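Budget justification aside, the reviewers requested a transparent look at the raw inputs and outputs of the sequence design task funded under Objective 1. We therefore reproduce one unedited record. The lines immediately below are the structure tokens for a 221-residue chain.
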């Protein structure tokens, strides 16, 4: 499938798939979207200083990288697991302009390590952040009460509805600790119903630029 790197409206880049008319991030702003959805409406809701995160769709590593930056800034200890069935090539990921746009050049080695480190192994970056990348289909996730927070960042329902099924969200629900949280940019009614069916208490909140709403799922046992 054809792939091209494009610049989004906030100046940060993403990968665009013309055949699907789908991008890895919002065309209205990749970095803006990542901070709004996964930090403001995800990580900031976790009160503990030690946090275990599962990302569904590791992609270009943007969400992982900004989480590393947040861990450094707020002195958090984050154990991050990124799941990706079809990893982005290292060379392609390193073409992203995140270091410049985030003014994070001093973390260049960490960004490179995120993409160059071996899959299926845990890598400790520093006292604030560790990363495990798993090459895995989402339906094969079998973790039980492991994570405090899930970043659900799969390709959109329009192009891959199977990634937003009740079966997938049941796996997500079971992989969260009690009182865990799942956050996603999605707001479709069919997605909300799938989340509710497996037990999530779903709240719609204001979305990132270019999107009216998004959803947060709370696991309350």
């Amino acid at each position: 499938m054809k792939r091209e790197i494009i610049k989004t409206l906030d100046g940060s880049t993403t990968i665009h798939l013309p055949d699907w008319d789908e991008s890895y991030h919002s065309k209205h702003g990749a970095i803006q979207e990542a901070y709004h959805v996964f930090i403001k409406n995800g990580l900031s809701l976790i009160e503990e200083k030690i946090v275990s995160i599962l990302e569904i769709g590791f992609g270009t590593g943007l969400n992982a990288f900004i989480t590393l930056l947040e861990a450094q800034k707020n002195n958090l200890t984050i154990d991050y697991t990124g799941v990706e069935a079809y990893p982005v090539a290292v060379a392609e990921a390193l073409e992203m302009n995140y270091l410049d746009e985030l003014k994070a050049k001093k973390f260049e080695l960490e960004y490179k390590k995120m993409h160059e480190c071996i899959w299926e192994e845990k890598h400790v970056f520093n006292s604030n952040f560790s990363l495990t990348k798993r090459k895995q289909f989402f339906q094969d996730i079998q973790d039980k009460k492991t994570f405090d927070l899930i970043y659900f960042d799969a390709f959109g329902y329009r192009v891959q509805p199977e990634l937003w099924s009740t079966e997938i969200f049941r796996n997500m629900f079971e992989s969260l600790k009690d009182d865990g949280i799942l956050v996603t940019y999605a707001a479709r009614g069919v997605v909300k119903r799938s989340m509710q069916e497996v037990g999530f208490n779903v709240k719609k909140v204001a979305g990132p630029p270019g999107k009216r709403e998004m959803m947060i799922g709370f696991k309350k046992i």
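The longest strand covers residues 176-184. The chain has a mean pLDDT of 97. Computational costs for records of this kind are itemized in the attached budget.
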